[in-house]
Amino acid sequence: MSASAAPSLLPTPIDPWRADIEVIPPHASPCRYQTPARWAAIRGSALDVLDRFGAEAARLGWTAAGR
Question: What CA–CA distance (Å, rounded) separates 21 from 24?
Fold first, then answer.
């Protein structure tokens, strides 16, 4: 039996970034000048960027402001 890479249950550096975005519902814009529909699109795009590039950003030393 060979050893295989198992998924890690440890938190990743991008988990707090994702949590900060996910805590704001898609229908509740955090900016009073941003429509809920526009916020939902921005939120979705932000989550997509984290999925695609978050690990690389963390590897390059990016951090969340205020952390």
Answer: 6
pTM surpassing 0.85? no
User: Is residue 43 assigned to a domain?
Assistant: yes
8 A C-beta contact, residue 18 and residue 53: no
- Number of compact structural domains in the chain: 1
Q: Which domain holds residue 47?
A: 15-25+33-59
**CB proximity list for 47: less than 8 A, separation 6 or greater:** 18, 21, 22
Query: 32 and 61 in contact (C-beta within 8 Å)?
Result: no
User: Is 37 among the domain residues?
Assistant: yes
Rounded Cα gap, residues 25 and 5, in angstroms: 34
pLDDT in tens, 49-61: 999 999 999 899 8
